[in-house]
Amino acid sequence: xxxxxxxxxxxxxxxxxxxxxxxxxxxxxxxxxxxxxxxxxxxxxxxxxxxxxxxxxxxxxxxxxxxxxxxxxxxxxxxxxxxxxxxxxxxxxxxxxxxxxxxxxxxxxxxxxxxxxxxxxxxxxxxxxxxxxxxxxxxxxxxxxxxxxxxxxxxxxxxxxxxxxxxxxxxxxxxxxxxxxxxxxxxxxxxxxxxxxxxxxxxxxxxxxxxxxxxxxxxxxxxxxxxxxxxxxxxxxxxxxxxxxxxxxxxxxxxxxxxxxxxxxxxxxxxxxxxxxxxxxxxxxxxxxxxxxxxxxxxxxxxxxxxxxxxxxxxxxxxxxxxxxx
Length: 326
What we know:
By secondary structure, the protein is an alpha+beta fold. The protein has two domains: about 1-30 and about 100-200 and about 295-320, D-Amino Acid Oxidase, Chain A, domain 2; about 45-95 and about 200-290, FAD/NAD(P)-binding domain (3-Layer(bba) Sandwich), CATH 3.50.50. The protein contains ten helices and 13 strands. Keywords: Monooxygenase, Oxidoreductase.
């Protein structure tokens, strides 16, 4: 892992083997991860392009799902993993996620003959602006540029014109070393996006629980967090593991009845809240600190905090999670 300033100066280089062998960073393209997980499911399990319009509880505790295409599904159990704008979370009473004050351009640089970068994460910190890139395959490099923005909504043109998105992204880093701009240039249009960074803090005794009857939410549908710790998708996978174990125990112990499932969902919520709430808060604080524009604060960050005070173990201890035996 390498941290640089906007003028290209290396502030700190972290070597995992030398500093903390218990820690590591792995970068995986989201599409590859999803395809790998989907390939392990039984045939015909997945039904694509089935957006949910509304959910209707039935007297016996089942859920009737009304889909956008006019069809309906009757489900004994509903697990909502449908992202930050989840209609299931909205039905359960969750508020819309809150805008953090930061937005991000993201994309995948494509090098058909092989990408030239070593297997490490590179971060670049400026004033109110930061970026990074990391190889995710022999031919692809993921990149992001995070910037302060008073409004979460760009103009309609910027949301539909990938070429303009790339121009805007490169304009932000026009005075930086050219590595990142070159990666942006090599990004196919369909991989480039601009998104507001949002989160939802799950306040105890105030926020709804993650389940309602035999309906439960996981991942961003329940606890969207800013990507400043790189733990959003990781937490969704953790949710899935814990929820699966709770459901398996309920089914084995009680024959899979509705009451057992509801208890499993409540147990999942109790166990996961203590993990996701601190991570959401920490991600928000880290993002706010890294997006400071004050030149004195940025000077101290670049010349004192990062080179002299940051340690790899404490920096990444939030990634530690053990699911025991599956």
